[in-house]
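Hi C.,

You asked whether I'd gotten around to modeling the 313-residue construct. I have! Everything is below, sequence then structure, no commentary in between.
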Amino acid sequence: MTLVDLPLGRERRVNAVLVEGAKLTLVDTGVNDPESIAILEQAIAGRGHQIEDLQQIVITHAHPDHFGAARQLAERSGATVIADPVSAASLVSYPKGSQQYGEIRAAFMREAGAPETLVEQFGQRGVRTWVPAESVPVGSTVDDGDQIQMGDTTWQVVQTPGHAISEISFVDRASRTLLSGDIILGSGGASVTLYAYPGGRPGRWVLDILASLDRLATFQPRRILPGHGREISDGARAIAERRAGILRRLEEVERLVQKQPLLAWEVSLAIYEPPLAGSWPSLFQTIGYLEALEAQGKIRSTVEHGQRIYGSH
C-alpha cells in the first residue's frame, strides 16, 4: 500500500491510498485539480501502473477533498466507484445540498459569536484554486461489517461517523492495518466539521468521534494510513492518545464555562493559541466540545439576541 500525499490548495494536504494486487484500488482521490491529478498519476506510475489500470475507486466519505477527482478518474479508467450508502447518495447528487451545508456552518459561526469577517472568510473557501468537484456515478455500495477486496486483501468495512455524517474505514485484521479516512488524522486530535446533526441539537459530533475511536481500538491496529498527515506506525497507541486528548479538552472546556457563561467564540480564543486561535477550524472544534458537554448534561446553553451562550446549570 502506498500513501499518496496530494496538494489541497496552497497550504493544506490530503492523502489517497493506492492498494496494489489483483484489484488495483485507489482509496480517495484528492481534489479535482490538474496539479493534484498529475501528482497522483506520477505516484501511480512510480508503482508501475497507470490511471487506466484502476479497477476500483473507494471513497471514505463525501467531502470534496476526498472525492473531487473521482469522476474524472473513473471515466479514464472505467473503475467502479464504491462508497457507503449515505455517502453514495451525496456523491451522486453533488453539488445538490452543498450550498445548504455551507449555510448551516455559517449559521453555527454566527450563533457562536464569530466576527462577520471570519464568516465571510469561511464563505470564500468556495472560491477555490481547484476545479469544483462533480457528481460521481457510484457503481456499488458497502456498509458496516461488509467485506471488500482491495488489492490482494479482503478488508472489513467499519462505519466510523463523527467527522462526517457517514464515513467508512477499512481494517485488514491479518496485518493489523487500518485505512482511517478522516476519523483519525496523522496530526492527531478530533476533526469536527459541523453538519446538521440527525437528532438535532445538541450536536453529538465529538461523542460520535469518541465512539468511532473506541470501536477502531478493538482492532488494535499497528499501521494506520490516514486521510491527512503522515502514516502512523503504532496505531493502537495513537488511538489511545487521541481519545485521551479529546477527553482532556472536554474537561478544559467544561471548567471554563462552569466559571462563567461564554460564547463558543470566547471559549475558542481561550483554549487555542496562534495560529489556530481565531480560525474557523478551532471554532468548529470548540462548538463540537461544547455541544458534546451539553449532550452529556454537564452544561447548558441559552440563546440571547441570536447568540448561544454556554454555562453551568
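If it helps when you're writing up: The chain has one domain: 2-311.

Thanks,
B.
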